[in-house]
Amino acid sequence: MAPVLDPAREAGYYQVVGAVLQDSGYYSEAAALHRGAIKGMEKGAAKGHPRLSGLYGDLAEVLWDSSERTEGETASTDQKLALEAAERSAEILDIFLNEALSVLPEQQALNLISSRPQPESVLFSGLLYASYQPDLWAQAGWNWTLRRRSLVLDELAFRHQQALESSSPEGAQAWQDFVEARRRLATLWVRGPQAGYTHWPELKEAIEAREKAEEALAAASSGYRLSREYRELDPADVARALPPRSALVEYVKVPVRPPGPTEHTDHYVALILDHGGGTRHADLGPAAEIDELVATWLQELRDSYGALGPGAPADSLGAGRPGEELRSKVWDPILAQLQGVDLVFVVLDGSLNQVHFPALPKAAGGYVIDDAVGVHVLSSGRDLVRIREMVRTEATGMLAMGNPDFDALDQGPSARSDEPATYRGPQARCGALRNYQWSSLPESELEVERIASLYESHDSVTVFTGATATEEHLKLEAPGKKYLHLATHGFFLEGDCPSVESFSRGIGRLVLDSESAASPGEPDPVASAVAFGENPLLLSGLVLAGANHATEARDDAEDGILTAEEITALDLRGLEIAALSACDTGLGTVAVGEGVFGLRRALEIAGARTVLMSLWSVPDEAGREWMTRFYELNLAGESVQQASHKASRELLERLRQEDESTHPYLWAGFVTAGDWH
Q1: Whole-angstrom Cα distance, residue 64 to residue 79?
Q2: For residue 84, what is the domain's CATH number?
Q3: Cβ(575)–Cβ(584) under 8 Å?
Q4: What whole-number distance in Å separates Cα of residue 8 and Cα of residue 13?
Q5: Same-domain status, 552 and 503
Q6: Pairing between strand 510-511 and 561-563?
Q7: Which domain holds residue 323?
Q8: What does residue 485 show for φ and ψ, rounded to 5 degrees?
Q9: Which of 560, 566, 556, 563 is nearest to 585 (CA)?
Q10: Does 114 reside within a domain?
Q11: Is the N end or the C end of the chain the one with fewer CB atoms within 10 Å?
């Protein structure tokens, strides 16, 4: 009797030999081996086994290559079969991911997403280069994009909501354990190593405890699985949710290649959907070129504003040439395919998450915002349907906090900075978060007072400033509020430590280096997060009262540093608008396909419908003026998107009329994301 072969091992053998044959140009023979691997797995395991996704993906790659050597009907057949194999790979992967993501902690879910097969490579290669049935390739590309973007974010937001709504003791206990585990981890992270003890084992233990708590929370909400219907949306479903005279643009960073023995190259591809259901696309070019343009534009924005100096007249738009080139690559090809559109919803990918499109300069002068087209950011195209069908949770009132007293609860001498800060974020310097001394923001208190006076004619307002603008008050008062306004410093930690000269004034980042971030023998905090797979929500946050004494806080007390990780544990259902009037609140670690891991993601998980955030440093006075005008417009009946767009345009027009600098830092500091109503 012949021995029974393990189907997985047999498939692995076929895969290896098939890959060698493919590299050697023997496409027919390679395809036959990949089909044999698939047949063996389906017979010996199951037709839906997740391993099959990779096998079908390999077959799709071989068939795609084969079409390069054939012509006419034969080439079309190869491309047709490649499309079918890639779609089957995506289908199996969808089923597996939907099941796996429902029970995995966030970091494990992200690891799974990043290590999965990539059927989108063939799907988008066919979209750009195939001669066979372009409409079918376009449909497949749209289906993949709509079903795969921000999957982990959606799952975590669902768990959060269901855990809070659960009436079972198990669900309630799972949620409480989850909140405490995240608070403990954030406290240890901010404190860092202290004299007299090594915090590394304690940090590792807290990370593991957080993961166990998250696993329990996933199990507690598994009976309430989110309906998969809106994860199976197609372009027609989304088009019906688009407002009149609007369009959706999904930017996708994806590896593509023409058929034949060529290497994959990451490209940015824009998928365009209009209100009538029409779909189009644009190949924006190699991602490396666009990513470099983004970095150059942002750096020149910083440098040009630093050289300009507050209040000085502008000689130019600042960063004009790289900004114009970036606009010509990522925005002009979109507008060229849109007619009669007043509003464009954008879903961003890769470095484009750092681009505020209205601030891009135009070749003929002015900015993109001068065109009669608004821009609004979404996490995925599915948001158009989800937001339309979302049941609103009852909430009331506003919580507003500003100008926290960072030296509150002083327990001893401190290196206090008495000079008021001009920007809402630390000035560029290397140094660990726990050692940073935060300066006061007097304009933010005026901002909060003005906004509170506007809102109190509509609803109740709770205001905390100075020593009362604490992390504890925020966590206690934010749940149940309809509006949340936080005017303070924001931070985003980066792993590299550039020279001081590479930054202009007021850039709201803290940069960790090994010397300042860790004691001898202790690992760097950022490296620690990477090494242990910890989620980067610990690397961004907001600064509140007492933060200059964060290292002195007791284990059971708040430390004044509110990380994005802690925000995910808040109950913000019913929160219509979370306005983060601080520097760099839209920044974070970018994961392709999942967006930015930072404050916006944390607030969305916690339940916020709309987030107002910044992508760069916001001068204190300009931030106050913009936010005040936004609320005036919004409370007068303008939608979130309209109020944001008009506030920026009006501020820009005032600067022009007064012959002042029109640098984007002065009028384009804030971006709206989420619900646009």
Answers
A1: 6
A2: 1.25.40.10
A3: no
A4: 9
A5: yes
A6: unpaired
A7: 233-385
A8: -125, 120
A9: 563
A10: yes
A11: N
